[in-house]
Design a protein that fits this description.
The chain has 236 residues and is mostly beta strands. It has a single domain, classed as Beta Barrel (Porin), CATH 2.40.160. The chain is built from 2 helices and 9 strands; from the N terminus they run H-H-E-E-E-E-E-E-E-E-E. It has an 8-stranded antiparallel barrel. It is elongated, with a radius of gyration of 21 Å. It starts with a helix and ends with a strand. About 3% of the residues have low confidence.
Length: 236
């Protein structure tokens, strides 16, 4: 709920700021320039939360990424489609004192489990851009396919006798996490010139990340990640 409230607040702020954009008429030459296909790059900074059967155990995490996109306008009315490609890194985990998890020593005093994931994201969104001579505001929604390249689990178990650490991959044979994912997303951004933009984006996994993770009764543990990003962009 906190991430959703943050996302709504950012959208309201950006939308209010867009009202200050120049609304002067655009002549034919300017229109052709504004609605030409655009290649862009983006830097992504975000916070994430976990939707899981045991979400009360999980701490929040963060994500970051860098990518490229290509916006194609459908005529000169502001509607567009935008495929992209980005490399992302995110982290989430558990850090609890006195936690009781199956398989831990009975004298465990603190348990820390973190996931570090590098992946490839392929978004495809559509939306509407209210362009002006000096910038504009854009609203969009769509889907994002994800391919996990590397995901490492780092586990630390602390007892009165000391700490035990180990690292393992959660992909591949015997892994508990799914390498492939699909998410829905939506966002808004504002361009302060023809080139620079800043925006906010919400994203939610549609598929279970942990289809091979089971509890003792053979119940499959569901794990999905929700992310709110701040995005800095540049359009050529």
């Amino acid at each position: 709920m906190k991430l959703r409230a943050l996302f709504v607040f950012i959208i309201m702020t950006v939308s209010l700021a867009s009202n200050a954009q120049d609304s002067l008429a655009i002549d034919t030459i300017q229109s052709a320039e504004i609605y030409r296909p655009k290649l862009g790059v983006r830097v992504i900074l975000g916070v994430n939360s976990l939707y899981s059967d045991h979400k009360e155990l999980y701490d929040g995490g963060f994500s970051t990424g860098i990518g490229a996109l290509y916006r194609v306008y459908l005529g000169r009315k502001g509607w567009f489609v935008e495929p992209g490609l980005s490399f992302n890194y995110d982290i989430w985990g558990i850090q609890q004192a006195g936690i009781r998890v199956s398989g831990l020593p009975p004298n465990c005093t603190e348990y820390c489990l973190s996931f570090h994931r590098f992946g490839l994201a392929i978004p495809l969104v559509g939306g509407y851009s209210a362009n002006g001579r000096n910038g504009g505001v854009t609203y969009y929604a769509g889907f994002e396919a994800g391919i996990g390249l590397v995901c490492k689990l780092h586990e630390t178990i602390e007892t009165p006798d000391g700490k035990t650490r180990h690292t393992q991959s959660v992909y591949g044979k015997g892994g508990v996490y799914n390498r492939f994912n699909l998410a829905c997303k939506g966002g808004v951004d504002i361009r302060f010139s023809r080139h620079f933009s800043i925006g906010a984006e919400w994203k939610m996994d549609l598929l279970n990340l942990s289809p091979n993770l089971h509890e003792h009764d053979n119940h499959v543990i569901t794990t999905r990640i929700q992310v709110v990003d701040i995005i800095f962009g540049y359009y050529f």
